[in-house]
Amino acid sequence: REAPFRGEPPELVTLADVRGDLHVHSTWSDGRSTVLEMGEAARERGYEYLAICDHTRNVRVVPGLDADDVRRQGEEIAAANEQLAPFRILRGIECDILADGSLDLPDDVLAELEWVQASVHAGQRAPRDEITKRTVEAMRHPAVRCLSHPTGRMINHRPENAVDLEQVFEVALETGVAVEVNGLAPRLDLSGTHVREAIEAGVSVVCSTDAHSARGLGNMQLAIATARRGWATAADIVNTRPLSE
Length: 245
What we know:
single chain; 245 residues; alpha/beta; 7-stranded parallel β-sheet; globular
């Protein structure tokens, strides 16, 4: 249950405000649609941009990309962009945060990318201090732009992990890293209550679908609805902005 709100709500973000999706997967990892198919589907929705963020190798339970894979995928993205212009596919990654807080790709590869999301997958049951230290260490990496599904919850399956969100939001404000509202129905992570806390702390929020198919781009409706429960306005959401911003 979400915490109650007090006062009059602001003009909340709507689905029509969204200009792009910054977290989707392709057949390079565990997606069911190709890079080009995802781009075409996003363009048909009226978006200006889409970030392909496939997994890295450390996830293990699904296929992941290593440095060579990321660079070869970059060639495929460049070819797709020639077909889709002025729509733009961004070279992104959902990079696993390792146990020591480092990232699952070399720095030189991360520096080539246009949108880097950092994620904890393994070790969700770690103690509060451990998982918090691991998370904020990764957020301080200069390539990281967003923290994906920050609490790791899976509704009716796995509770939120013990990460200290207050500290996460402090580091997010310090580094300019955004936090994600993940639109997958089993996640909806951050929750509406946590969105409100992030916004009150001055932290930027990304509403993403984590789509694993072209159809999955429809998850944006759930991400936006969750952000609205946190009283998010369009100004609070990164991907309501034009690509140039």
